[in-house]
Every structure is written in structure tokens, then in C-alpha cells.
Amino acid sequence: MPRLASLPAVLLAATLIAYTPEVGAQDSAAADVLFQEAKTLMGAGKVAEACPKFQASLELQRTLGTLMNLADCLEQQGRVGSAHRRWEEAVTLAAEQKDDRGTFAEERRKAVASRVPKLVVDAVTGAENLSVAIAGSPVPSSKLGLPMDVDPGKVAITILRGDTVLETREVDLAEGQSLTVKLDLPAISKAHPEKKKSEKPVVEARPEQRIAGFVVLGVGLAGVTAFAVLESVALAKRSEADETGNCVEKNDTALCSPQGFELVEEAGTLAEVGQWVGLGGLAVVGVGITLVLTAPMGEPDDETEPKTTALPWFSPHGGGLMVGGTW
Q1: Which residues 6+ apart lie within 8 Å of 245 measured at CB?
Q2: For residues 65 and 38, what is the distance between their CA atoms, to the nearest angstrom?
Q3: Residue 38 domain boundaries
Q4: Does residue 200 sit within a domain?
Q5: What is the helix (H) or strand (E) element at residue 100, kind and residue range?
Q6: Among candidates 178, 76, 180, 172, which has minimal Cα distance to 117?
Q7: What pLDDT, in 10s, does the model give residues 268-307?
Q8: What does the alpha-carbon distance between residue 158 and residue 170 come to, in Å, rounded to a whole number?
Q9: CB count, 10 Å around CB of 267?
Q10: I need a labelling partner for 15 at 20 to 30 A (CA). Which of 83, 93, 118, 296 fits?
């Protein structure tokens, strides 16, 4: 790649090394470290490693010296399109700061201008506002149809819908080459139809869930039935103890014979077991009803469709089933 041997060494050194910190101490110190590292890499011929260092230094502290060093680095790397843009920025910044180095920057800009590839994106636009990016950088609609500086080599032209890439075209440009790429954005939009947001996925039917729900419901009802049976037996035991005279009430206290005491104990045990069996049965019934009601029916979900929710509850003192929803 062409270097700066044709320019007087003294002028080059005075122009490119000039560096005046003008920002906060911390950013200035960090920018200076990066700048010096980049200069060392340039001296060692490691141009590709030096350019990112100049770029990082420039982002921390925008000075004319760093900007011109970055432009020179990019030019030596062969990225003449990027270098040309940086030399243009240097000319503008020098004029703003009334810096004499602006003359040198303008000479370098003119020298590299003829080597810059020009890319024209001639886009036919349509109703949909698709966007275009070149080498990852968005292209304003105002620049479509106008020559744009690019770096030599392969250049990717991306057509996007929002953040979604629809198509990518790749072109290969040599130094000084001009190329026009035509894009029919309506045709690209038609080739990639946008999915309607209102479309809902089809929910597959789940008959096995409904079957399982009915089975669980049956088990729960069996538990409730067992509760009724156990409670009936418990009441019968208690009545037998009272009717045979095995237990009598005296001063609000039950006095029972050994046989009566045994009957009362059996009645209490049966009643307690029946209570827990009944509560468990109610819980299982709730699960069964929930499985049946929530089983997919093979139709898209619709917020306007009736929905039912069943929630069992139980405690040592009772239980039940809460049913709610929209109808």
C-alpha cells in the first residue's frame, strides 16, 4: 500500500504527532496511552492493530492530531473509503479550530479521493418502508441514488424490515471503481410477506388429558362416597352405644361401659378417617374437573371464549371446591 515516503519526513512528524489534550484528566490520560500504543504499533508495521487504538483514543478525546493519525492508518491499511471520510473530518475540524494543519489534511484528502470506490444504491421504493444498510451501517433514504464512499473489497448490502434481514447482496469493488446496484424494494417486500400479528397458532387437541381428568374425577368421587359410608358407619356405632344403654349422660358427662367405650372409640376413629378421606376425595375431584376443563380442544385460544377454573380447598375442619371463570 502507498505510504508517506513522498512527503518530507519533518512535515509528516510535525503534522501527525501533534497532540493537544483538551478534555478531562482521566479521559485525556487514557486517550494518550492508546495514542502512544497505536504509534508504537505503526512503527512496528502493525497497521491493522494500530487503527483500532487510534479509533479508541479518538472516541475518548477528539483532537485533530489523533483524527489525522487515524486517517493515515486507515489509508495505509487499504481502507481508502474510510480514510477519505476521516481526512474530510480533519479538514473541517482544522477549519473550526483555525489550525494550519488543515492544508496538509486537504492535500491528503485530494490524494486519496481518486482511489475511493463509489457505490450507488438505486432503490425503487414502495408502500412499505424497508431500510438499506451498507457494510452494517444504515443508509439514509436521502442518500439512495447518490454515490457513497466505500472501502475496496467485498461490500454487503442488506435490506431490512425493522431488525429482520430480508435479503443480502454482496458486491466486490476495486480501488477507484464505481458501481450501481439496483434494488426493487416492493418486489423484495412481496417475496418476504410479513406475518400477520393477529394469526394465532393452532392448538392441538389433547383427548388424553380429558380422559385422565375423568379418571381422576372418578377416583375423587369414590373418595367422597367412601367418606359418606364411613360417616354412616360411625353414626351407627355411636347410636348403638347410646341405644343399648352402654353410655348414659350424667351431669353433661358421658359414662360408658367397656363395651360402650369401645363402640364410641370405633365411631370416633371411623369419623376421623372418613373426614380425611372425604377431604382427599374433594381435592381429587377438583383436580379432575380442572384437567377436563383445561384440556385443549384443537381451536385457537380466544379471549372472548368462556373459561372456567376449579380450585379445591380443604382443611382439618372441612373442604370444598371453588369454581370461577368467564362465561
Answers
A1: 260
A2: 13
A3: 9-113
A4: no
A5: none
A6: 178
A7: 786 677 677 667 767 776 776 776 677 676 554 444 555 5
A8: 9
A9: 20
A10: 118
